[in-house]
Amino acid sequence: MTKILPLVLAAGLLAGCGATVQQQTAQQNADPNAPVTITNCGQEISYPTPQRPVAYDVSGAEKMFSLGLADRMRGYVMNKLGDPSIAGSPWKDDYTKVQRLGTSRITREIVVDAKADWVFAGWGSGFSEERGITPHLLDQVGIRSYLHTETCWNFGDKKTKVPPLEALYADLENLGRIFKVEKRASELVADLKGRVAKVQQSKPAGEPAKVFVYDSGTDQPYTAGKHAAPNDIIATAGGRNVLGDLAKGWTSVGWEPVVQAAPDVIIIIDYADQPAADKQKFLDSLPALQAVPAVQQKRYFVMSYGDAVSGPRNVKGAEDFAAYLRSVGR
User: Fold this and answer.
1) Of 3-17, 35-49, 286-300, which range is least confident?
2) Domain segments of the chain: what residues?
3) Would you say residue 51 has pLDDT above 90?
4) What CATH number belongs to 204-327?
5) Could you give the CA distance from residue 228 to residue 184 in angstroms, rounded to a whole number?
6) The domain 36-197 belongs to what CATH superfamily?
7) Which residues is 102 bridged to in the sheet?
């Protein structure tokens, strides 16, 4: 009897544990909209499952689309400058299925009029004190917010600095929890990480190519610092962002640092109002750049806006840029 008793107790404990797990599962199944607690930009936030979510720009829309959430969205807002990105998007069909709520910046009026209950945007690029749309202000009218982790370096009191690709993975996993699609999110992140690892394995030996990102600007170039996605895209492909030490996201600089850095390759970001061909002509004609190797050798790589902003297409951007670098022996 004494030998059997522990087994009986153990069986009872196991049965009790099983009952607890079943009870928890039953509770979750009974309430699929049960809130989840997510850490976003250093803050713990409880999110009920959004019923009328709105996303801003390519970044927000395509993170949602990649997780199969198009049919659950109230809509998206996207500046018309990003329209050429849609044609090359793996989710271009989703753009036609989801209502477009605006063709410029996202505003508080747009999301209130849409009766949104959740808004997904970046700090500075979407949410803004100056334009009167912030997580705090939306909270006051009953609308929850989620910020792109890539932009957390410049938000709030608990600024968190996460490398762009790690920020992408964090967003996808957090969205998976918020919208109860954890399995799909885990599978997507694993696939993206696998593709990144494969690109990294193709890096040649030697010094990485020096790369300058040119978005726009004539008097001052608008470019990507360490907190913008191209910084990690370039590093993954085997290059080095010559302005990667700037503790900024997308920002303006003078031409002198570019000249001094002597980039081997220039990435030109392509979008609607300033075609890449026009930008290349400008760079070719700028007297200050005539001694820069990239200009002398016409080593320009055109990157879609959709590949350059935070989103699943960052990995495609790295794959394509790596292929270009190998084609010029770098």
Assistant:
1) 3-17
2) 36-197, 204-327
3) yes
4) 3.40.50.1980
5) 26
6) Nitrogenase molybdenum iron protein domain (3.40.50.1980)
7) 77
